[in-house]
Write a structure and sequence with these properties.
150 residues, alpha+beta
Length: 150
């Protein structure tokens, strides 16, 4: 990679994945979240959801199982995996996402820069994922910051 800014606009292969009730339950249990809305349809409906909602970080499950793996993504970016750190993850929810929804995901690099300090240079690369449900409604956006040390 000659200039990290050349990565801006790079798009990854789109993917789709269904939001499964069992995966929602697994994540809630793993997080220690016993809120009944993640386990019981009636409890979810009582709180105003059309179905069992996903926990806030569930989009990571969609990306892990539906999208390109971390190693493949880092290779496509032209980075050395052993020099990559996950810097930040931001979530923006624009609508409810519930069990049974099918999310279609597009992903691209939206920011890239190199910063230099006395200890050396580091690339900062931000990818953005957009999640649309089966009705083509944009329901969430995530931004993932990767740090790549030279």
């Amino acid at each position: 990679m000659s200039n990290v800014k050349d990565l801006i606009g790079l798009e990854f292969e789109p993917y789709s994945m269904a939001v499964e009730k069992g995966k929602i339950k697994e994540l809630a249990l793993a997080l220690g979240d016993d809120n009944p809305i993640y386990f019981d349809l009636e409890a979810a409906k009582k709180e105003g959801y059309e179905g069992i909602p996903m926990p806030p970080t569930f989009l990571q499950v969609i990306d892990l199982w539906g999208g390109m793996g971390s190693v493949e993504k880092v290779e496509k970016l032209g980075l050395n995996l052993v020099r990559v750190l996950h810097g930040q993850q931001a979530y923006e929810y624009l609508g409810d996402i519930v069990a049974g929804d099918v999310l279609s995901v597009t992903s691209k690099v939206v920011e890239a820069e190199t910063k230099t300090a006395s200890s050396g240079a580091m690339d900062i690369i931000v990818t953005e994922n957009q999640y649309r449900n089966q009705r083509a409604e944009l329901v969430a956006i995530t931004r993932n910051t990767l740090l790549h040390r030279h």
